[in-house]
């Protein structure tokens, strides 16, 4: 049996940060990983998807300015785009990130980790050998999620794409059908259409990005249409089959139509990777999410020893929020290891309170959309007295200079009682870069009267902040 202060199960971004911060606090730590160190984000999600999306966005930006437009006449080079993606992902080679763990003084044990009772983790290696790790202070579960396939007959038999195949494919499919209308569906439709695929989206709902402000889904719908993506709202796939001779796939829908394509991407949600985690050994239901408090301590287990960080706790399933939770979790573990209480609340370093009111999101479609905080609807449902302020970013001088055909939209949600911003949604070029200003305003609870004195430089797109405050009446 090997003993460490902290045993981390899962070597993705959350696990790396927890272990690194624990070691930085003077504790010992080990990371258990069955696949590649770096996790889904590094090899099959955030990094490769943005690598696929950026070339099309760069080309569109150049063509949005007269004088540069004339210099950009060719289409994207798919082979070079895919090669550039592979340079970022190393095609799954985790040598660099494994070396980082070693350099940081973090042990790495490769194999499948399962809880084996209080403070114990059994790791089964590729050769079948079992090694038992014991935690003096904490076991931290950072196993993340995996794609959930929708209940479509035959989908599990055709080799359907999930985010994993959609971000790592070595060739552009001639025809791609995407099932879903969320962020992954919209981004992958954008990326593969930019590379030359014919793309059809099958969206069960009547809008894209349904959890966002309506303007976000409307703008992405327009943008995908401009790219040539076909979107069918209110339609669900019911049956799929692959022809073994031609390798084409026929997708039958609930409105009686049939689509023939080369690949099908299922992008309808995620489920926790907890089915084979040994949760039953500590009295937890198998295969379920792991509810936690603001220090990421699993609330259903007594004692301060079991934590769950990142997507697996379902609080804010985004890589940047997983890293944020990891910093808070490691701080809480260190505080408790030192014999000091680490209660929730009070804006302490060990309390991941931003999960509840200031989660930034960025979708790299064309146009980009970004948000943070509450939508107007969510704020009203929470009982806040709110006022929404909207402004077309197109009317900002800096935006017109940035692109001849700039199109963007901004919306603020203001808590009238406190006079602070509680939500913001932006669409258009650079929206994903502009959203952090709103994040700071929300987290800092900056009064609007004070925010008025944060003067944006002219002529920048950020001047939209001045216009929003003017529209509010300041």
TrEMBL record:
Pyridine nucleotide-disulphide oxidoreductase dimerisation domain location: 359-465
Cofactor stoichiometry and binding remark: Binds 1 FAD per subunit.
A Gene Ontology molecular function term of the record: flavin adenine dinucleotide binding
InterPro entries per UniProt: Class-I_Pyr_Nuc-Dis_Oxidored (IPR050151), FAD/NAD-bd_sf (IPR036188), FAD/NAD-binding_dom (IPR023753), FAD/NAD-linked_Rdtase_dimer_sf (IPR016156), Pyr_nuc-diS_OxRdtase (IPR001100), Pyr_nucl-diS_OxRdtase_dimer (IPR004099)
EC number in record: 1.8.1.4
Entry binding sites for NAD(+): 180-187, 269
GO biological process: 2-oxoglutarate metabolic process
Disulfide bonds: 41-46
Domain FAD/NAD(P)-binding: residue ranges: 4-326
Residues annotated to bind FAD: 50, 113, 311
Keywords associated with the record: FAD, Flavoprotein, NAD, Nucleotide-binding, Oxidoreductase
Cofactor(s) annotated in UniProt: FAD
Entry's family note: Belongs to the class-I pyridine nucleotide-disulfide oxidoreductase family.
Name of the protein in its database record: Dihydrolipoamide dehydrogenase
Organism: Streptomyces nymphaeiformis
Top-level taxonomy: Bacteria, Bacillati, Actinomycetota, Actinomycetes, Kitasatosporales
């Amino acid at each position: 049996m090997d003993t460490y202060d902290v045993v981390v199960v899962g070597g993705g971004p959350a696990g790396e940060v927890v272990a690194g911060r624990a070691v930085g606090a003077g504790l010992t730590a080990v990371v258990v990983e069955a696949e590649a160190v770096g996790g889904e984000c590094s090899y099959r999600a955030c990094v490769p998807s943005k690598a696929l999306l950026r070339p099309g966005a760069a080309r569109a930006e150049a063509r949005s300015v007269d004088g540069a437009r004339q210099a950009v006449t060719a289409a994207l080079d798919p082979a070079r785009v895919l090669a550039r993606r592979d340079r970022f992902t190393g095609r799954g080679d985790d040598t660099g990130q494994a070396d980082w763990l070693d350099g940081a003084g973090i042990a790495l044990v490769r194999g499948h980790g399962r809880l084996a009772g209080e403070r114990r983790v059994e790791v089964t290696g590729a050769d079948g050998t079992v090694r038992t790790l014991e935690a003096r202070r904490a076991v931290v579960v950072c196993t993340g999620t995996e794609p959930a396939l929708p209940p479509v007959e035959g989908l599990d038999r055709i080799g359907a794409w999930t985010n994993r195949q959609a971000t790592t494919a070595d060739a552009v499919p001639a025809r791609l059908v995407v099932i879903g209308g969320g962020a992954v569906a919209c981004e992958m439709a954008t990326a593969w259409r930019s590379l030359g695929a014919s793309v059809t989206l099958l969206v069960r709902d009547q809008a894209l990005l349904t959890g966002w402000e309506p303007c976000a889904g409307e703008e992405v719908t327009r943008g995908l249409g401009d790219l040539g993506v076909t979107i069918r709202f209110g339609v669900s796939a019911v049956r799929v089959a692959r022809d073994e001779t031609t390798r084409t796939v026929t997708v039958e829908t609930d409105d009686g139509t049939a689509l023939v394509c080369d690949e099908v991407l299922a992008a309808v949600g995620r489920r926790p990777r907890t089915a084979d985690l040994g949760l039953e050994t500590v009295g937890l239901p198998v295969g379920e999410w792991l509810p936690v408090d603001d220090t990421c301590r699993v609330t259903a287990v007594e004692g301060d020893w079991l934590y769950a960080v990142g997507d697996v706790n379902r609080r804010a399933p985004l890589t940047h929020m997983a890293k944020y939770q990891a910093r808070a979790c490691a701080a809480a573990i260190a505080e408790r290891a030192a014999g000091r209480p680490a209660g929730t609340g009070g804006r302490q370093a060990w309390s991941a309170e931003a999960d509840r009111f200031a989660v930034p999101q960025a979708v790299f479609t064309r146009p980009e959309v970004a948000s943070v905080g509450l939508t107007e609807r969510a704020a009203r449902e929470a009982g806040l007295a709110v006022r929404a302020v909207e402004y077309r970013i197109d009317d900002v001088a800096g935006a017109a200079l940035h692109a001849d055909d700039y199109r963007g939209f901004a919306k603020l949600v203001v808590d009238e009682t406190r006079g602070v911003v509680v939500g913001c949604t932006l669409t258009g070029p650079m929206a994903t870069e502009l959203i952090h200003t709103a994040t700071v305003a929300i987290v800092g609870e900056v009064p609007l009267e004070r925010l008025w004195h944060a003067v944006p430089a002219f002529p920048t797109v950020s001047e939209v902040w001045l216009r929003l405050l003017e529209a509010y009446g300041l």
